[in-house]
Amino acid sequence: MTDFVRTAITNHIGIITLDRPKALNSLSLEMVRAITQALLAWRGDAAVRAVLIRSSSEKAFCAGGDIRFFHEAGRSTPLAGSALLEDFFTEEYALNHLIHTYPKPYIAIMDGIVMGGGMGIAQGGEGNRMRVVTERTKMAMPEVNIGLFPDVGGSYFLSRCPGQIGAYLGVTGEVIGAADALHAGLADVYVPSSELGTLVDMVSSSQAADLRHAILEFAAPFQAQAEPAASTLAAQRGSMDRHFAGNTVQAIAASLAGDDDAFAQKTLSVMRKRSPLMMCVTLEQLRRGAALSVAECLRMERTMVRRSFENGEVLEGIRSVVIDKDNAPKWQPASLDEVDAAMVERFFAPAWPPHAHPLRELS
Asked: Is 143 tagged catalytic?
């Protein structure tokens, strides 16, 4: 379908393989379109009873969107970015919605790096999904590190993590492994990477009426290898829930600063490297997202991403991390004390009238 997305149907299972290993399967517009095309074709095809999405590389399932493209397009004229940038986010979020509402079992093998846009194509709908993690899984919504916010439905799936885990993950952008992903409700089963080939073979040949149950049975012997005891999120849950219960990032930072515990101080140190503005925007996004549907979350995020490129914080973040690689972003404002409510509110101000919103048809 493209040079970077391969599709096949085996034993009535539609298989999507991401194959852009040099870029850790970072999503381009063409890849988004190829995945969407396959899912739309298979949605009403009685010969396809489930979808499995995986990577050709053990390094990454998908490291996110192609942020070099974001930087190039976002610096173009007019300021809001090129038409291709607008198309990318509209079509990517529409794909996220398609996956969340997909009527057939959707199996994502989240081996290796799973970040940003990779989470968007892995989280899927609550009734039909099956999210597999391995010992190599490195999961995150790290957008605050590049001056953005956790999009691709992050408003929805992070805000539904237990307690304040979603707020912690979104505001800090920290990376977690398999045990943490399971504890956070961002994965369903653990399978060792050495068994993934056998898992895919089983799925590709299974005659089971309930494919999700078949995967649960396959994975059952391995679950002890990802026990909650190995989860940092579980171990620090009390501290996390207490500190991240605040309604502002300033309150969260103050709470952490008053705690001498190593976890609290490490978290505060991480937050000092992130965009102060986008941490505040992220917290507000997640608080709002908790009361919204998937479609409403994605519409909100589509507005937010337009405002983000108008603001320019994301361009500075990408410059520091990917372009110049100096890891010394000049955040504006430079400190949490300088962020006020009006700055945050601008990211949620409508960019289009409701009848013209690019994602108005999502339901």
From this structure: yes
Q: Phi-psi bin for 221: left (phi > 0), alpha (psi -120 to 50), beta?
A: alpha
Helices 294-311 and 83-100: angle between axes, nearest 10 degrees: 160
Among residues 128, 158, 156, the alpha carbon closest in space to that of 233 is found at 158
Active-site pick, 92, 151, 284, 313: 151
CATH architecture of 5-356: Alpha-Beta Complex (3.90)
Q: Is the pLDDT reported for residue 81 higher than 60?
A: no
> Do residues 31 and 18 lie in contact, with contact meaning Cβ atoms separated by under 8 Å?
yes
Q: What is the pLDDT of residues 278-300, one digit of tens each?
A: 999 999 999 999 999 999 999 99
Q: Is 189 strand, coil or helix?
A: strand
> At residue 358, does pLDDT exceed 80?
yes
Task: Please state, in angstroms and rounded to a whole number, the distance separating the CA atoms of residues 203 and 46.
Answer: 17
pLDDT grade, residue 80 (50/70/90)?
very low
Task: Name which of 7, 69, 66, 68 is nearest 34 in CA terms.
Answer: 7
For the question of whether the overall pTM of this predicted structure is more than 0.85, the answer is yes
Task: Pick the catalytic residue from 66, 92, 111, 143.
Answer: 143
Catalytic residue among 116, 117, 147, 289: 117
Residue 313 among the catalytic residues:
no
The four Cα atoms 137, 138, 139, 140 give a dihedral, to 10 degrees, of 180
CA distance 185 to 123: 10
- 301-318 pLDDT, tens digit each: 999 999 998 888 888 988
For residue 197, indicate whether it is catalytic. no
